[in-house]
User: What shape does this take?
Amino acid sequence: MILVLGVVTYTPFYNLKKFNSLYSDSLKYSVVEKLALKNHEYFELKKHEAYLKSRLLAAKSDSITLSINIPDSIISIEVQGFILHQVKFKKAKVDFLLSKANKESLITFIETPLTINTDFATIKKEPVVYKKAPKDTIEAAKQISVPDTVDYKKVMVKFYLDRDLIIEMKQSEKKPHKGQLIYNIKEESEKLKLLFKDLFKLKIPEYHPRIQIELDKNDIKSFYRALPNHALVTIKI
Amino acid sequence: MEPIISPVIHNDLEIVSVNKEKGLVFNQLIKRIKNIGQKLIEKLLVKKTVWILLIVASPVFYFYLLFFIQDNILVTILPVKSEYSLNDDKTYEQLKKNTLNNLVLLQQKLNRKTPGSTYLVINSSTNEFKLYSGIKEIRKGICSTGSYTLLESSDNKQWLFKTPRGVLRVQGKTENPVWIKPDWAFIEEGLPVPSKGDNSRYEYGSLGDYALSLGNGYLIHGTLYKRFLGLPVTHGCIRLNDEDLEEIYKTLNIGSKVFIY
Assistant: This one.
């Protein structure tokens, strides 16, 4: 038990080191620039520059992309650089790995768009309703129905991106407690499974930094259903 | 308590009465011991339940603690304070100026992505639309978009009624449009499918006063079923009420962009 505690405590430090070495480029910045990046104001400017470059790269694709600006609390979907839908989110939590990372590495990390590998959601991406063609007009008359607009499902969406990042969107409206508890249990047991899988293989457990955002559920639905599979994501942290 | 028989009357009676008294006390004592014993057993059982719960719950708390530590341990890394200031050196001032100029150029490039003319934006998840001219919003309202119904005929043909997403353009504009009913319109109603040129294929008035074509059979048009506006009920087309449709028809031109998401 103590060993597991030790390993779990060490994992974030190990992954931070890995992140810093993976995304740093010794030739990218001159000595002068590296020194300048230590200045907070200059670092913020460079971050914003990286974010805009990333958005312009994403604009080259014809499909809808997701753009998250954490410092300004803005999330939007764009197509060819045009903002389709933009909202201010209420709460965001950024993993400590991203805030403690090396400045140069962070800029390199956000300079190009990320890609959504897979996603998990409590709502359907395409809520297809199957209908068998009626045999006659009498049967057709019985089939007439109005879509159910009662909104009872809690809305949560998780995007698993390349570069090991997870973006989680949760509804800001009051959640049904039972649903929230079951979701939390599922999530923790999934983490537990992965942890033990790595421990049994005598590997340092994987650690994926997360960004958690709270939004209105209609906005989450709009974003989730608008984004195609393997959509591009641009982030400013 | 029973009255004690006076010891003056009879010696044997005296012994009996004393014994009776002792017996009573003894019975009371036993009762008390039994009560205490029962209470102790109850407490022990409760304690056992608490211990069992603790043993079962402790791994859960342990793993929650593990993940809490994993998620928050990096906060112990203190930020390195830099005493260096950009204002100290002209080189750095130049770097900052270059970055700011670059930012302005990049933002201008992004701003140019917003169409300068009129365009329509449709949210098919919430069934809402917004009409713009440049960055100015002219009108907004509700519409109806695809129902996501998958219709399957008896010969296993399928049609999925969904509104396409992305950037489309207005390809044509029509006043008093006539709906040329496709096969699925008959199959959906349980009617036999007529031949291509048959009169029953032509329906007048059901598309409203105007229609804008987006290509591949998708239209923006009016509706007789105004109570369903705001709901996903169409076969892929976008339905609007009469006033909104007229404004959009008169504002958008052929070639105007329609963004659907």
About this structure: The two ends of chain B are 91 Å apart (CA to CA).
